[in-house]
């Protein structure tokens, strides 16, 4: 195939749209996966507006049959995938650990972690024979440090980094690079919801403790994601890469 192609889950969110646009600017084809047609089409339209190639697939990424569905749609259309971005995620409830709802714990683990395990399994056969295949799993600085009030989120993102390391080692012999991307807080609706839920305390905890004194921008995440998906040396694998204005260095 002349052009590179791949899959982005959670494509219709704030970071997803920015990543899709960045990938469109790089001239690659993207299958935009999201839980509703509206979200998936939003991402696809953002790509097409830049003259890029987009396909859509509707999937709840925590459901195995749905994940198999987007992988087989990608195989039917393109036959393979050069890149795979496991991006879909939710922040879940904001509550102290002692009152954190158990059903929400399960939901966050399913959407943030099970989805990535299922996605890796379903997409491996498509990446296996492709040219320079690369996978990025979206973690967070919440996967590197504590996340008070977001216990399930932090635990899920720590686990994403663990899963990434195992996948990197198991897939190394097939020439597939697998890395985790760990942004700090990023401008957008997810941080908006977190700030609203904590009445300003989240701002105290994140923005004012970040050495650059600001949230990241979706474009900054998109630029690093595109590099990790398309350009990074294949020798770079199994890494958890921070993008956080110095948050985890402090
Ligand atoms: N926003 C931040 O500050 C930040 C920081 C670090 C990491 N991240 C991670 O980046 C990713 C994207 O975050 P965002 O800021 O774009 O959030 P967002 O809420 O704007 O977008 C999330 C996207 O995932 C989709 N999604 C949610 N549940 C799904 C499901 N079950 N099946 C399919 N799709 C589903 C949503 O529809 C949405 O399009 C998440 O994994 C998040 O944890 C975000």
Polypeptide structure, described:
This protein has 250 residues and is of the alpha/beta class. The protein has one domain (5-243): Rossmann fold (3-Layer(aba) Sandwich). It is 46% helix and 15% strand. Strands 3-2-1-4-5-6-7 form a seven-stranded parallel β-sheet, with helices on both faces. The longest helix has 27 residues, at 102-128. The structure holds nicotinamide-adenine-dinucleotide (NAD). Residues 10, 12-16, 34-35, 39, 59-62, 87-90, 111, 138, 140, 183, 185-186, 188-191 line the site of nicotinamide-adenine-dinucleotide.
Give a concise summary.
The chain has 250 residues and is an alpha/beta fold. It has one domain (5-243): Rossmann fold.
Number of individual domains? 1
Instruction: Examine the coordinates and then state which fold CATH places here, giving the name of the CATH topology.
Output: Rossmann fold
Q: For this structure, what is the CATH class? A: Alpha Beta
Main β-sheet: number of strands, strand sense, barrel status? Answer: 7 strands, parallel
Strand and helix order: EHEHEHEHEHEHHHE
Please give the order of strands in the largest beta sheet.
Answer: 3-2-1-4-5-6-7
Class computed from helices, strands and strand pairing:
alpha/beta
**The CATH architecture:** 3-Layer(aba) Sandwich
Summarize the amount of helix as a percent range.
Answer: 40-55%
The low-confidence runs, each spanning 5 or more residues with pLDDT under 50, are none
CA-atom Rg in angstroms: 17 Å
């Amino acid at each position: 195939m002349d052009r590179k192609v791949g899959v982005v889950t959670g494509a219709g969110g704030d970071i997803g749209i920015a990543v899709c646009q960045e990938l469109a600017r790089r001239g690659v084809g993207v299958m935009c996966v999201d839980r509703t047609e509206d979200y998936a089409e939003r991402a696809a339209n953002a790509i097409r507006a830049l003259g890029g190639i987009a396909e859509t697939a509707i999937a709840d990424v925590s459901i195995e049959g749905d994940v198999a569905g987007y992988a087989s749609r990608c195989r039917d259309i393109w036959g393979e995938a050069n890149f795979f971005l496991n991006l879909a995620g939710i922040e879940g409830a904001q509550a102290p650990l002692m009152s954190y709802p158990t059903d929400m714990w399960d939901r966050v683990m399913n959407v943030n972690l099970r989805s990535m395990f299922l996605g890796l399994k379903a997409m491996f056969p498509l990446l296996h024979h492709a040219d320079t295949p690369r996978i990025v799993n979206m973690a967070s600085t919440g996967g590197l440090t504590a996340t008070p009030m977001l216990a399930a989120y932090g635990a899920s993102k720590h686990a994403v980094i663990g899963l990434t390391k195992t996948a990197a080692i198991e897939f190394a012999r097939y020439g597939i690079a697998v890395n985790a991307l760990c942004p700090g807080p990023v401008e957008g609706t997810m941080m908006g919801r977190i700030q609203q839920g904590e009445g300003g305390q989240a701002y105290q905890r994140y923005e004012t403790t970040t050495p650059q004194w600001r949230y990241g921008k979706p474009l900054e995440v998109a630029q690093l994601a595109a590099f990790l998906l398309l350009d990074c040396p294949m020798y770079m694998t199994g890494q958890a890469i921070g993008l956080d204005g110095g948050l985890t260095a402090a």
